[in-house]
Specification:
single chain, about 575 residues, Rossmann fold, 19 helices, about 65% helix, elongated, binds adenosine-5'-triphosphate, binds magnesium ion
Length: about 575
């Protein structure tokens, strides 16, 4: 097989994946051997079929042979069933192992590495790539063994029938192999291109459909249709080429069969004249030879399967080999006091020309609220994402209770904070399950009710069809109000010393925002709270306000101090004051 050396290395590693399925594969191998033997046995029967039944007119064989044929095929069918079953078990098992391991790795990747791969591509790794790997490592092996055994069995039968004719016909072998390889290559090349255009078509459709409102507003329907039609045309053209190649390929197989048969007849005629070959022997040769050709054709497919699988495996191994988040801290941490200190912290995302954060220093004390404001893109979210170590700062230090964050175990550190991000996604499940999420799942229904009440969400949840058992999330309906109820309650239930809110109130109307404010008042005491909000009215009572601009901390102080300063904050405030007309 012509695979580059690196591909062989990947393939060897792939073979390691079938380790756990050794037993199952051994059974499948047994089935394969029986199948091969049955094919050989049938080949052997073809001679007496003709010679005894038609030439010698032997009555006994007239009953025995039909019975034997049925018997052989019963055995062959059962063996084939077991082979398929066990092979599928191993192949599906390998695919499952691959996707579970990749999923596990994805959830452990450091933030930057995670951002580097779009989620749809991750879904492909977990989906078709895992399946292709299983094909390469199990199914290709099956085809290779099954068809090779078929070829060996049939060749043995042919040699038994007449070694002279067989050797003569075998001279044709290399030619057949060469032709089949040629056709197979062309087929694979176009097949691959068809897949590519299908993927492009999907991408174009996804973009146009996901942004259908923009498409309409900007009058881009015709442009999008032109793009999509062009890709659809490409796809059609290539699909037709694939069909043509498929047809050529079967014509080639038939032609080779005919040429083989002609040669066979030619040599067999000689042998018959010499008295070395009976009519039955000739039928046996012919049937065996005709059985070899499709087997050879299948064998030429194996390389394509291997190549696809190896390419998929390469992508998957690239994911599996990525480093986990660094988690080397050992300092024990039960419950932090919640003293957070930033010392000259910088952060630069790779590929970005400017630092997202530069020289950030501040202290957030337990029991206080620190508000972070600034224009869009000024680095507010980036700043708070450093605290759970979603990203590592490029310079400076962040301390919790006086020790660098990296000295703690990640799980311990993250247990110290409740966080509400810019988009609150609900998980598929009931309200109660969404509140008591992750490590909180031990919470009793009583606890859940208590936090729902504490978060001003009990009344809202009681209005839902099944109260706290109402299904929300992916399949159920989840309004912004429902999401907000869930995150407030979840944060309250977690009862963490540090609370981080990133524009959590932006999507709410005034009435529900007031409820949220009340609930926040409930959440905030005794904690270190960091809150990012665009509405400055929500941060007026903060103990300190940090004003960010282009990644720098440009102002710091209380609402009154900053207003008196007449700087960036005062300016932002004046603008919002005008807008709201308050
Ligand atoms: N994962 C990322 N990879 C690369 N660049 C990023 C990433 N996240 C943010 N940035 C960039 O870093 C800068 C700060 O972004 P950040 O999200 O922290 O701003 P923000 O103040 O929270 O803005 P907004 O008010 O719109 O939420 C922006 O220029 C943004 O494009
Ligand atoms: Mg943000």
């Amino acid at each position: 097989m012509s695979l580059p050396p690196s591909a062989w290395a990947i393939y060897r590693r792939l073979l390691g994946l079938v380790g756990p399925y050794r037993g199952v594969l051994l059974l499948a191998l047994l089935g394969l051997l029986v199948e091969g033997a049955a094919a050989g046995a049938f080949g052997m029967l073809t001679k007496p079929m003709v010679d005894e039944t038609f030439v010698a007119r032997n009555r006994e064989f007239g009953i025995l042979l039909p019975l034997a044929i049925v018997g052989i095929f019963v055995v062959r069918g059962m063996a084939g069933y077991l082979t398929d079953l066990y092979m599928a078990k191993a192949a599906r098992g390998v695919a499952r192992d691959m996707r579970v391991r990749a999923m596990d790795k994805y959830l452990r990747l450091p933030g930057l590495r995670f951002d580097g791969e779009p989620v749809p591509s991750m879904l492909v790794r977990l989906g078709s790539d895992s399946d292709q790997v299983a094909q390469a490592v199990v199914d290709s092996g099956k085809v290779m063994l099954q068809q090779s055994l078929q070829v060996v069995a049939m060749l043995a039968v042919m040699l038994y029938a007449s070694w002279r004719v067989t050797l003569a016909v075998l001279l044709l072998g290399p030619l057949i192999a060469w032709m089949m390889d040629k056709v197979g290559r062309r087929y694979r090349r176009y097949g691959h291109k068809v897949q590519e255009t299908s993927a492009q078509m999907m991408l174009a459709a996804d973009q146009a459909l996901s942004n259908q409102q923009d498409v309409k507003v900007y009058g881009a329907r015709e442009m999008e249709m032109a793009r999509y039609s062009r890709l659809a045309d490409d796809n059609l053209r290539l699909s037709l080429k694939v069909e043509a190649t498929r047809s050529i390929s079967s014509a080639v197989v038939q032609l080779t069969g005919a040429v083989g048969l002609a040669l066979l007849l030619f040599f067999a005629g000689h042998e018959a004249l010499a008295g070395r070959l009976t009519a039955g022997g000739f039928v046996q040769l012919m049937i065996s030879m005709l059985a070899i050709i499709p087997a050879l054709k299948q064998l030429t497919n194996v390389q394509g399967m291997l190549q696809r699988g190896v390419a998929s495996a390469e992508r998957l191994f690239h994911v599996l080999d990525a480093e986990d988040e660094t988690d080397t801290g050992t300092r024990p941490l039960q419950r932090a006091r919640g003293l957070i200190e930033f010392r000259d912290v910088t952060l630069q995302y790779p590929g970005q020309p400017h630092s997202a954060l530069q020289g950030i220093s501040f202290v957030a004390r337990p029991g206080t609220v620190t508000a972070i404001v600034g224009r869009s893109g000024s680095g507010k979210s980036s700043l708070v994402k450093l605290i759970p170590r979603f990203y590592e700062p490029g310079g400076g230090q962040i301390l919790l209770d006086g020790h660098p964050l990296s000295e703690y175990r990640l799980a311990d550190l993250r247990r110290q904070l409740a966080m509400v991000g810019q988009q609150v996604m609900l998980f598929d499940g009931s309200v109660a399950e969404n509140v008591a999420y992750g490590e909180l799942q031990q919470a009793s229904p009583g606890d859940v009710e208590r936090v729902l009440r504490g978060a001003n969400a009990l009344e809202f949840v009681a209005q839902m069809s099944e109260g706290a058992d109402t299904h929300i999330g992916v399949k159920g309906a989840s309004s912004p109000a429902a999401s907000a109820s869930v995150w407030r309650s979840r944060a309250l239930l977690k009862d963490a010393p540090i609370l981080i809110l990133d524009e959590a109130t932006a999507a709410l109307d005034n009435a529900s925002e007031r409820l949220v404010q009340e609930a926040l008042a409930h959440l905030i005491p005794d904690r270190t709270t960091l809150v990012i909000a665009h509405r400055l009215s929500t941060v007026e009572h903060a103990d300190q306000i940090l004003v960010l601009d282009e990644g720098r901390l440009v102002e710091q102080g209380t609402h009154a101090e900053l207003l008196a300063r007449g700087g960036v904050y005062a300016h932002l405030h004046a603008m919002q004051f005008r807008e709201t007309g308050a």
